[in-house]
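FORM 12-B: Structure-to-Sequence Request
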């Protein structure tokens, strides 16, 4: 089969790769697979968990061509958990002590023509839903999970929450949409890139502005979602969270400075780090995609998998306005 392989820092090579063997699992012909921020981190050599050579990609959907679910159209939950540890038993599978995820050794990723997965990690996709939209279940589930935790931790009801999302990439936009789907309509998103601001407005975010516009007020938001995760955005999250508010940290830009610990302590601001999603979060997100609650989902851009290396370069150089590029094997 053909695959897009991470072969070194800033090197993605479209080449032959070994065909996976299904065994007791399902062999899936990948139809759509998104480029994630974590794929970019690996591409830049910033993720020790993803050493080259490796097939990246974990936001995928396709057709089962062999195995228990043969013939099904599916979206893939890439996080494989043991099902028996204390976290799995309490339905917090994302914290499983032996969890693994495709695109991280020992599991190859979905930037390939074929992939194998257990049936428990697959959700059937209705014929009325495109594979491109179905592949968004993974990144949107990340957003859904973070938003859900933030709403659960906040004292105000969702409808009364004043929410701020930092970042207009796929996770920022997905978080803003998830807030609305989960009952929090008062949402502002800040994003420095004008093209992305325009996309977020068209996608249905109520208020979108440049972080340098001066339109925001300190200590004004019940929930602040940092969908970027750098020192500067953590500083902004600290600045804009109100007393008793919640900061939800989803982005994984870096792990350095930015958080105002003194303010968080003196004003009882809750900080929540979030990782992936539970099995229920993933299913609930897929259902919301299938029944149209996320809207038209027309903020994606598609490319052939064979042109994936160029897509990575263009994302790195800021030449892509769309929050998500989806590759077609």
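FORM 12-B RESPONSE
SEQUENCE OUT:
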């Amino acid at each position: 089969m053909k695959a897009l392989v991470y072969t070194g820092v800033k090197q993605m090579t479209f080449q032959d790769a070994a065909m996976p063997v299904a065994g007791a699992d399902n062999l899936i012909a990948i139809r759509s697979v998104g480029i994630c921020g974590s794929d970019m981190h690996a591409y830049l050599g910033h993720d020790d968990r993803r050493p080259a050579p490796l097939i990246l990609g974990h936001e995928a959907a396709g057709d089962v061509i062999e195995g228990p679910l043969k013939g099904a159209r599916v979206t893939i939950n890439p996080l494989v958990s043991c099902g028996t540890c204390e976290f799995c038993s309490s339905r917090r599978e994302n914290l499983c002590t032996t969890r693994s995820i495709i695109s991280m050794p020992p599991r190859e990723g979905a930037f390939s023509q074929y992939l194998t997965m257990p049936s428990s990690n697959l959700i059937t996709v209705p014929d009325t839903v495109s594979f491109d939209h179905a592949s968004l279940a993974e990144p949107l589930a990340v957003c859904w999970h973070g938003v859900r935790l933030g709403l659960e931790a906040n004292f105000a009801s969702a409808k009364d929450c004043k929410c701020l999302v930092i970042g207009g990439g796929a996770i920022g936009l997905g978080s803003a949409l998830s807030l609305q789907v989960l009952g929090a309509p008062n949402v502002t998103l800040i994003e420095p890139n004008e093209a992305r601001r325009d996309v977020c407005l068209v996608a249905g975010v109520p208020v979108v502005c440049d972080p340098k516009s001066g339109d925001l007020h300190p200590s004004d938001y019940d929930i602040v979602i940092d969908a970027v995760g750098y020192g500067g955005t953590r500083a902004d999250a600290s600045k804009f969270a109100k007393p008793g508010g919640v900061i939800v940290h989803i982005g994984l830009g870096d792990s350095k400075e930015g958080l105002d610990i003194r303010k968080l302590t003196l004003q009882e601001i809750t900080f929540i780090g979030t990782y992936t999603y539970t099995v229920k979060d993933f299913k609930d997100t897929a259902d919301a995609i299938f029944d149209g609650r996320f809207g038209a989902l027309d903020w994606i851009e598609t490319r052939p998998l064979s042109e994936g290396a160029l897509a990575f370069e263009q994302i790195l150089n800021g030449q892509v306005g769309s929050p998500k590029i989806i590759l077609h094997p």
